[in-house]
């Protein structure tokens, strides 16, 4: 009887990572891994986790498919880590159900827009050393950002020194468009390339014409040097 009781009491498929604490919150599984000196995301997080807190650790990277097996995940807290790199498919598998994603207070300078624009979650991106660029601008325009943290998304670096230290939203409100700057740069590069090809064609035509002219002159001189057949006939 004790054996069957043990089988009934053990929550099959709900093992908890050794460095975390798993609890129930409003009938949903919460996995708490805050301040556990983690350097990477645990691989044995229960599949039925709804709330996952990984804040205040030393995680530096979010690899592709890091949370793909957590189909029930709704809230993910990755704040106060040392995250620098986020792969394009970092949140693949949880994009549809995730409601909140906290990436604030990390070391993120840039992020692939594909990693965030597929999410329906409310994002917190404040207090990161952002490099203000087109991709970040597109995230700000299209993603669901937490309105309380938008003002804390500041330009740590930028194409122009005058933008450094300013909130990105303030810079954009002033009429700056990082995407148009990139487009102009692309257009200039394309123009230079086309001009280079055009110049090469012109040089080729000139050389071709000059070469043919020299051949023609040589041929004319050769014809002049031939005996006058009509004079001999007379």
Describe this structure in words.
With 234 residues, this protein is α/β, with parallel strands linked by helices. The protein folds into 2 domains: 21-176, Ribonuclease Inhibitor (Leucine-rich repeat, LRR (right-handed beta-alpha superhelix)); 183-216. Helices cover 35% and strands 14% of the residues. It has 6 helices and 10 strands, in the order αβββββββαββαβααα. The chain has helices at residues 2-9, 113-117, 134-142, 168-173, 178-225, 229-233, and strands at residues 21-25, 28-32, 49-53, 61-62, 75-77, 85-86, 100-102, 122-124, 130-131, 155-157. It has a 6-stranded mixed β-sheet with strand order 1-2-3-5-7-8, with no helix packed on it. A two-stranded parallel sheet has the order 4-6. A two-stranded parallel sheet has the order 9-10. Strand 9 (130-131), helix 3 and strand 10 (155-157) form a beta-alpha-beta unit. Helix 3 packs across helix 5. The longest helix has 48 residues, at 178-225. It is elongated, with a radius of gyration of 33 Å. The relative contact order is 0.07. Residues 1-13 and 182-189 have low confidence and may be disordered.
Q: Any low-confidence stretches, pLDDT <50, length ≥5? A: 1-13, 182-189
What overall form do the CA principal axes indicate?
Answer: elongated
CATH top level label of the largest domain: Alpha Beta
| Fourth-level CATH superfamily of the largest domain | Ribonuclease Inhibitor
**Name of the CATH architecture of the largest domain:** Alpha-Beta Horseshoe
Largest beta sheet: strand ordering: 1-2-3-5-7-8
Number of contiguous helices: 6
Span from first to last CA?
A: 138 Å
Given helix and strand content, the structural type is: alpha/beta
Helix fraction, binned, reads: 25-40%
- What is the ordering of alpha helices and beta strands? HEEEEEEEHEEHEHHH
CATH topology of the largest domain: Leucine-rich repeat, LRR (right-handed beta-alpha superhelix)
Alpha-carbon Rg, integer: 33 Å
The total count of strands amounts to 10
Structural domains: how many = 2
Largest sheet: 6 strands, mixed
- Beta-strand percentage? 5-15%
Question: What is the overall pLDDT average?
Answer: 83
């Amino acid at each position: 009887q004790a054996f069957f009781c043990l089988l009934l009491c053990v929550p099959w498929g709900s093992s908890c990572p050794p460095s975390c604490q798993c609890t129930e919150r409003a009938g949903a599984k919460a996995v708490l891994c805050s301040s556990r000196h983690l350097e990477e995301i645990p691989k044995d997080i229960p599949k039925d986790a709804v709330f996952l807190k990984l804040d205040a650790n030393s995680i530096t990277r979010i690899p592709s498919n890091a949370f793909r097996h957590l189909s029930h995940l709704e809230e993910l807290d990755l704040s106060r880590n040392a995250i620098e790199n986020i792969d394009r498919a970092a949140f693949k598998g949880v994009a549809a159900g995730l409601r909140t994603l906290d990436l604030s207070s990390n070391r993120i300078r840039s992020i692939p827009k594909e990693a965030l624009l597929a999410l329906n979650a409310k994002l917190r991106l404040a207090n990161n050393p952002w490099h203000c660029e087109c991709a970040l601008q597109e995230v700000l325009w299209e993603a669901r950002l937490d309105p309380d943290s938008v003002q804390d998304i500041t330009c740590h670096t930028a194409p122009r020194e005058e933008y450094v230290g300013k909130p990105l939203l303030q810079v954009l409100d002033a009429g700056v468009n990082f995407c148009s700057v990139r487009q102009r740069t692309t257009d200039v590069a394309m123009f230079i390339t086309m001009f280079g090809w055009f110049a090469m064609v012109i040089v080729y035509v000139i050389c071709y014409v000059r070469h043919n002219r020299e051949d023609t002159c040589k041929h004319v001189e050769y014809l002049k040097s031939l005996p006058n057949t009509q004079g001999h006939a007379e």
